[in-house]
């Protein structure tokens, strides 16, 4: 690939700021194989953005000549006491996610999997020195604001009580955690970072904290941080939606019946493209996966299907009323079923993957 082609490919993933566009171009011109890290929080229930969009973006990185390392943030799951805080269990969950990515077509030849706990244990002095330096260069108020935003998100999503300081599960490490996460991003000395592909809002703050810290650094490594697109909630709700409601998104573990119900109940206002979750799924999942979108004919008629090769054409027809909400939903449902069928074949034909998938049941919340 030419420099321009590599730049366009990487730029399509998304950048955090306009300033980073020139930095990205300079980096690609200087390095044939820049090192890219991808942050992943282990979860037994894999959101489709973390399962499909992540694979699509990582494959773009590999295509552009990058050396990609997917970092499993097991250390933070451990300190949060998720899944009992057992690192072995957390690693099992991470291994399951790796099987999901394999099933989704991850370009394995250009990808390495690393575990944050291993990285910290190999370089504890370097890591904790970096943590303290980040802390020393930020005020307590800044840390509290980081945590407050995370708590506000949790309050909206999970309905937690209003006073966080009275909760027994709110421990002091939570105030210090932004510094630890920032240090975890800087520790590998990566050229490029793609942060979490799920909906964890706390990493938005870590992204900003890292950028602010790097601005004051003299020399050293300043990673370019890519910002991916997020999929909106399928159901009509407030800003964050209710994660406790399984209808809010498509997960890689969804069966055919569950998938059908979710899509049919999804919010899809006629002639409205802005913020339409069904169209966003088609834009970011269906078109990148298939290269087109096939819209089946009306159920009461045979045949009459239409194939769109550009998402702009599909959106134009939808906004004009030539394409109806029910048709968009059928197109999305059929496309997702085909994708899930591909994934299902991997787990059905691989004993290790099948065993890991079965083991996830005990970790489901």
Automatic annotation (TrEMBL):
Domain of life from the UniProt record: Eukaryota
InterPro entries, per database record: aa-tRNA-synth_Ic, Rossmann-like_a/b/a_fold, Tyr-tRNA-ligase_arc/euk-type, Tyr-tRNA_synthase
Catalytic reactions of this protein: tRNA(Tyr) + L-tyrosine + ATP = L-tyrosyl-tRNA(Tyr) + AMP + diphosphate + H(+)
Keywords: Aminoacyl-tRNA synthetase, ATP-binding, Ligase, Nucleotide-binding, Protein biosynthesis
Coiled coil, from the record: none
First and last residue of the signal peptide: none
A biological process term (GO) from this entry: tyrosyl-tRNA aminoacylation
E.C. numbers: 6.1.1.1
EC main group: ligase
Gene Ontology CC terms: cytoplasm
GO molecular function annotation: ATP binding; tyrosine-tRNA ligase activity
Pfam families, per database record: tRNA-synt_1b
Family: Belongs to the class-I aminoacyl-tRNA synthetase family.
Record-linked PANTHER family: TYROSINE--TRNA LIGASE, CYTOPLASMIC, TYROSINE-TRNA LIGASE
Described purpose of this protein according to its UniProt entry: Catalyzes the attachment of tyrosine to tRNA(Tyr) in a two-step reaction: tyrosine is first activated by ATP to form Tyr-AMP and then transferred to the acceptor end of tRNA(Tyr).
The protein's name: tyrosine--tRNA ligase
Species assigned in the record: Aegilops tauschii (Tausch's goatgrass)
């Amino acid at each position: 690939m030419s420099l321009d082609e590599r730049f366009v490919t990487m730029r399509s993933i998304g950048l955090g700021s306009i300033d980073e566009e020139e930095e990205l171009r300079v980096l690609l011109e200087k390095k044939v194989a820049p090192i890219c890290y991808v942050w992943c929080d282990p979860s037994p229930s894999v959101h489709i953005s973390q399962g499909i969009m992540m694979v699509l973006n990582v494959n773009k990185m590999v295509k552009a000549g990058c050396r990609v390392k997917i970092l499993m943030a097991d250390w933070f799951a451990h300190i949060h006491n998720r899944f009992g805080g057992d690192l072995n269990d957390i690693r099992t969950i991470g291994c399951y996610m790796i099987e999901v990515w394999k099933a989704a077509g991850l370009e394995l030849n250009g990808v390495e999997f690393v575990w944050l706990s291993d990285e910290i244990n190999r370089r504890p002095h370097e890591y904790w020195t970096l943590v303290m330096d980040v802390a020393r260069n930020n005020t307590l108020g800044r840390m509290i604001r980081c945590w407050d935003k995370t708590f506000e998100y949790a309050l909206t999503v999970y309905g937690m009580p209003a006073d966080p300081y009275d909760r027994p599960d709110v421990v002091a490490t939570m105030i210090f955690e932004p510094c630890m996460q920032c240090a975890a991003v800087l520790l590998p000395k990566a050229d490029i970072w793609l942060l979490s592909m799920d909906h964890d809002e706390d990493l938005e703050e870590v992204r900003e904290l890292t950028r602010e810290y790097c601005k004051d650094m003299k020399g050293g490594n300043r990673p370019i941080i890519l910002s991916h697109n997020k999929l909106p909630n399928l159901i009509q709700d407030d800003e964050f939606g209710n994660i406790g409601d399984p209808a809010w998104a498509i997960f890689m573990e969804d069966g055919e019946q569950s998938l059908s119900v979710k899509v049919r109940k999804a919010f899809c206002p006629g002639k409205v493209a802005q913020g339409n979750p069904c169209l966003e799924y088609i834009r970011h999942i269906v078109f990148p996966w298939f290269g087109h979108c096939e819209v089946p004919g009306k159920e009461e008629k045979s045949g009459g299907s239409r194939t769109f090769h550009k998402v702009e054409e599909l959106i134009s027809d939808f906004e004009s009323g030539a394409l109806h909400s029910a048709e968009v939903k059928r197109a999305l449902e059929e496309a997702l079923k085909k994708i899930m069928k591909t994934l299902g074949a991997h787990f059905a034909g691989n004993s290790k993957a099948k065993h890991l998938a079965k083991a996830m049941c005990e970790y489901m919340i």
